[in-house]
Amino acid sequence: MPGECSNLPMTTLRFRTLLALLAGFAATPLLAQSTYDQVDPMIGTGGEGHTFPGAVAPFGMVQFSPDTDTTCVLRACYSHAAGYRYEDPTIQGFSLTHFSGAGHSDLGDVLMMPVAGDTVPFEPGDAGKPGTGYRSRYDHAAEVARPGYYAVALKDRGVRAELTAGTRIGVARYRPTAGALPMHLLLDLRSSLYNYPGKVLWSSIRLRPDGIVTGCRQTRGWAPDRNLCFAIRFSVPLTGHAFVSTETDVAYKGFQGPGRGSDAVAERAGRALVARFDFGTTDRPIEVTSAISSVDEAGAIANLLSETGDFDAIAARTATAWHAALDVLRIDAPAPMQRSVATALYHSLLAPSVAGDVDGRYRGPDNQVHRANGYTFRSTFSLWDTFRAEHPLLTLVQPATTTRDIVRSLIASREHSPDGILPVWQFQGRETWTMIGYHAAPVIADAYLKGIRGFDADAALAAMVASATYAPYAGLGEYMARGYVPIDREPEAASKTVEYAYDDWTIARLARAMGRADVAATFAKRSENWRNSFDAKTGFIRARKSDGTFRVPFDPTAINYGSDYTEGNAWQYSWFVPQDQASLVRALGGDAATVAKLDAMFDFDTSKLDYSHAEDIAGLIGQYIHGNEPSHHVAYLYNYAGAPWRTQARLTQIVGSQYRATPDGLSGNDDLGQMSAWLVFTALGFYPVTPGSLEYVIGRPFVNRAVLTLPNGRTLTVISDDLDDRHPYVGKVTLNGVPVTRAYLRHDEIMAGGELRFVMQAAPNTTWATRPADRPYSSSSAR
């Protein structure tokens, strides 16, 4: 973790003391092993990880974090999708909303910057020219980041800034570092992490008689027509303020001073607002508490008032929440692995984030206000990424109520959707239509099949069927008519065909479990549609045209947006048949041919290939691309071809090259926890290749010992005997002392708890779990 200043202010020391007192109630050995203490939020903030280091509560609505640069435009903002980039020399300010590891930028709402001194610039300035604006240089050595807390010294602003967050609030504490100085806070409503010409459609700000500042902003960015309101309260009275519009291209439509019928002290509206708040000369800290709402200012105020206490109280409460959330998994491993896995768990617990106000109100995909009754509405659904491992991980490390709320939120979003389908990529209730598939289906099916209840199963199934039969969506009409998506009618057709087929299988699984044999039969048949895109001559999944022929010319290494595949090529997508890998193995010519093709993928010489035009293609091992999701299950597929030791070798290769306990420690976008969830599962020795199958494919562990406290209160202890770099292979596996001779574990076995023991060895065990009967689930050979 970045170094901390030796001259910490007394408020920080009091906070540390409070945490120590809280921790003192636990036994010393457990405290020493606390997963909370091993988390480093700086991991992933450099390179292409796109994570943020700021303060957030578990699944918090507010992600209070520094933004190092918001001056990019459109896709140039890709590198700053999380606002903060470790390599940047300056901090522009601190805003209330961020994505963790997204492959697209947006949010960065309500940017604030503290200033000590007489001059308060209203423009951010040039990062390469210190002093030209309100941004400030900073030093990583003066940064502190841990779950729920962030601090930094702003060199050019003369302020030490500390941030913490509750579920729906963010709290900042600003202290001048050079004695008593005039203190100010700048609020920039023009700033955004996805700058689009005319992005801010309208904004407003008002100072109320009680000193609370409120306002709203309507933006047009990744999500069209998004509304967000805010409320801000200061710990000291204001001595002055200024609300300024910097619009120059249109007539000013706002107002200064109280409007007609308003009880505000001052208010203004427009498309380019910036405000200054003055606190007088002081050497004492100033606390600023903020809240947001996608509904209205009243909702933001209610959220602001819903969590009481000063900075230290909120920080301690959030630290306690993080201890509870993280310490369900205790890890014993070499320090770098310990930090990587602990941080991966932390990143897996940031989304789907709370998106409903304290009174239950939220804004839905129809841009109307609704109310959640009996659950907390959540959003930030990066479903193309997270259905794979993130959501299955939540069913093991979170109470069932978390997944229940997620499923109810998905169903509610479908009910409010103008198109009547489940979310695809949604945040703050608004749909972006980014990526492909209807991957809310496997999330819902996996939850139900694992016994999670508390939602309307009939409504869930109806939502899944509606999404899978909505003809206008991304070639679905053609898919239903032909059994594949034709490339001359719809881009990325090869990927869409195989992803639709998997989603169809999950619908069939849920329908069968609910006794709906008619629906199950329909979608089980559709799940076989992957075969229509498989080319036996080349051994690849390919795009067909509407006349039934495969599109030519064909280059399995080609990656282009809008081509035959989605963020990938034939090498990655030809393995996406998670519902029936056994049939794919047969189609490829059997075990030996499959192993050879997998090896060819990993060993492919890419030295003469240029993928620099494709932003999401990172973390290459041959044609295996760990930095993007279509490859995530591939290393485990050797198990389906009778060669589990090859899976173990590939996992050693992947973990060793794709994860580090450093700011650039993620090879690609974390994608709202998916990259991290992959590591958590893999470190424990198993992975959900096929969500909905109720099985986990065994790989190899990367921790010496781990204790997982399950949602039912039982514990699963994973022990790895003789684990080190010289012993990368699994010799044998036992569960509660009984030998495991198959290459998978069942969900009910995990939930029963007990002891999962791996005995590691230097040489591969080429006989363990190799029989066809010992291989993981495939629909064509389902047990």
Provide structural commentary.
- It is built from 19 helices and 38 strands.
- The strands form eleven sheets. The chain has a nine-stranded antiparallel beta sheet with strand order 7-8-9-10-18-14-13-12-16. The protein has a six-stranded mixed beta sheet with strand order 19-33-34-38-35-36. A four-stranded antiparallel beta sheet has the order 5-11-17-15, with no helix packed on it.
- Among the domains are: 10-322, Beta-galactosidase, Chain A, domain 5 (Distorted Sandwich), CATH 2.70.98.10; 359-470, Up-down Bundle (Glutathione S-transferase Yfyf (Class Pi), Chain A, domain 2).
- Helix 5 packs across helix 18 (674-684).
- It is globular.
- By secondary structure, it is of the alpha+beta class.
- Residues 1-32 form the signal peptide.
- One of its GO terms (molecular function) is carbohydrate binding.
- This is Glycosyl hydrolase family 92 domain-containing protein.
- Residues 300-761 form the Glycosyl hydrolase family domain.
- InterPro entries: 6-hairpin_glycosidase_sf, GH-type_carb-bd, GH92_a_mannosidase_put, GH92_N, Glyco_hydro_92, PNGase.
